[in-house]
Amino acid sequence: MSVNILGIESSCDDTAASIVRDGMLLSNVIAGQEVHRKYGGVVPELASRAHQQNIVPVVDRALKEAGMGAGDLSAVAFTRGPGLLGSLLVGTSFAKGFAQALNIPLVEVNHLHAHVLVHFLKHQGEGSASPAFPFLSLLVSGGHTQLLVVNDYDEMETIGKTIDDAAGEAFDKCARVMGLPYPGGSMVDLHAAEGNPDAYSFSKPRVAGLDYSFSGLKTSFLYFIRDRMKEDEGFIKNNRDDLCASIQRTIVDILTDKLEMASVQTGIMEIALAGGVSANSGLRRKIRELADNNGWKVYIPQVQLATDNAAMIAITGYYKYLSGEFAALDISPLARLPV
């Protein structure tokens, strides 16, 4: 008998629902929230209200696109955390009510864990290409930057992490300094495509081991812009593409230098990217170059599966369902939840 999992994702500003049948992706629906653009970032209260409006139609559409009814579901998987607590509450409450009404199991999912397991989704009409255990995962998002050794679906070891800010936050803060609109990271990537990555040089942090740091880079970039603006008020406008290309190259180099180091130390040659920043074209290009140079076998998620989505929640829920890991109906979301 087939196992049909409904995945629900509501950790930030995207309301998403997905159906996975026996590991095969059948539907993946995402409702964004344009309201945050005028504020230059996600406003938690507005995000939770929008989730309340979006979640029912998003789930309904996911079921219809999958060609099934609610009665065909085997379990409901939902993001427990980490994320914005108000947003998580909406998804958690809906998942609990839906599972109880259908008398089917409830499965809690760690959002970060799900980003890593997105590589195990099967796609209709395509061959299966999933990493073999153990593999290295570079998990990079707006709030997290981690290097993981993934030994199994539910066994992950953090061997490196940021000691301050995440790479995604560095992208966003640098974008804000240049006056780019939200979401800043994707705007930096867009302008970088037209710029010269060697135009400007920014210092890289010296952090021991496999840990990362991005706060110093953000500060040095701010001071660099401030000093240049004193000399030329039109500096940002006249050099925006080169600035974006240069800061993007710097962040990508910081990320991949430690990844190379981790591969050498562990001897692992299977490398998987994960998290929202894995949608960055510069990072994707650099990983492919390193794969050619080092003999790595790399796994890079489709762009629509790199950013927040419910397909990753559903596939993680699928493996937890197979191992009988179910949640109680009195479970609560958690804003902070490590891998």
CATH superfamily of the largest domain: ATPase, nucleotide binding domain
Residue stretches low in confidence (pLDDT < 50, at least 5 long) are none
Q: Provide the gyration radius in Å.
A: 20 Å
Q: What sequence of helices (H) and strands (E) makes up the elements?
A: EEEHEHEHEEEEHHHHEHEHH
| Spatial shape | globular
**Helix content percent band:** 40-55%
What is the count of helical runs?
10
CATH class descriptor of the largest domain: Alpha Beta
Annotated CATH topology of the largest domain: Nucleotidyltransferase, domain 5
Report the sheet-strand fraction: 15-25%
> Please, what is the average pLDDT?
95
Number of domains: 2
| CA distance, first residue to last residue | 31 Å
Side by side, the strands of the main sheet go 5-4-1-2-3-6
Structural class: alpha/beta
Major pleated sheet: 6 strands, mixed
Write a structural description:
With 339 residues, the protein is an alpha/beta fold. 43% of the residues lie in helices and 19% in strands. The protein is built from ten helices and eleven strands. A hairpin with a 4-residue loop joins β7 and β8 (145-152). α4 (167-177) runs parallel beside α6 (215-231) and α7 runs parallel beside α8. The radius of gyration is 20 Å and the shape is globular.
Main attributes?
339 residues; alpha/beta; Nucleotidyltransferase, domain 5; 6-stranded mixed sheet; 10 helices; 19% strand; globular
